Amino acid sequence: MPWRLPGPIRRSPLLPSCSRYGSTAASSRVSKPLPLRILFCGSDEFSIASLRALSAVKHAEPQLIKSINVVHRPAKPTGRGMKTLREVPIKQVATEELSLQTHAVDTFTGWTPPRPIDLVIAVSFGLFVPPRILGLARYGGLNVHPSLLPDLRGPAPIEHALLKQRKLTGISIQTLDPKQFDHGTILAQTAAPGIQIPPDMSAALLEEQLAKTGAEMLVDALKAHKFVPPLEDVGWYAKSDGPIHHAPKITKKDRFIDFKVNTIADIFSIQYALGDGWCILPNGDRLIVHKIADTGMVDSANREPGIWVLKGSDSPLFRDTDGRIGVILKSTYAGNKTGHGNAKLLHTIPAQEPDERGIVFKP
After folding, report:
1. pTM for this predicted structure
2. What's the CA gap between 241 and 101, in Å, rounded?
3. Which CATH number fits domain 252-361: 3.30.420.10, 3.30.830.10, 3.40.50.1370, 3.10.25.10?
4. Residue 243 — very low, low, confident or very high, per pLDDT cuts 50/70/90?
């Protein structure tokens, strides 16, 4: 259920009966809300883009945004011995660059935000904003999500878009649902068919592109007062025939390469989305795969999928589940020197005699 305004503000002077909007859906929408007092919840570079955009509007258009308080997670111990505290990136940007007041919160239980609040905006935050906090805000909350909702609901939509080899993605501006993540009313969404994902796009580059687009769409939504009831759901993707999947938190298992299951395209997608993949060698040891290449050939000798070595070869080869042959250009043998895995593989795996009849160029 979408968040609803509490009863006491129905006759508020912020909600006049007349309106400058011509459409029926927005006939009762406020034409000029008072300047917004925003509680912004964020963490990383994706959320920083939206915070910078809001701060710029605050200075350029004070009639739209009056204040911004930033909520972030506390510093976490990291490094050897867990003795070093690492702050989330947004804290330094908020305090040193934007001169905004910040609040470190690891749980909303027992925490009281600065009041009054008009709007909560959560972008790549990681904590669920409970109904108690949303209920303090005149207009509830908004979220910037880097996918075409309801596709790729969850904490890792960018990585899963690449892992699933999606051709298109986008941005959805949604309300914060009081019961579950990513089930709010979609107030703005990238126009059909979406934003094209170029070949060989990494997660970092895709995040940078979507962060900029998301920040612009968030500002546009505020300027158009789309957060003011009656709310209009403009999500189009749910009505299309596009795939809909969940985007759960990334784990070590997502980096696993199984040559009996994965294609070369799958292995590339793991590297674009997550960086280095890893596999298990026949002897049980683990190999970290840094870089591969597609030879453009297929194996007609019907070898088992996996890693193998040809006599005289400088790099180990592998066969994927479809019979395509790839080359491992750089790897690390677990427990050995970083980047020197190929040398050990060439000495560990028995080399096979070259057989031109067993390798053919893919037609």
Report:
1. 0.87
2. 44
3. 3.10.25.10
4. very high
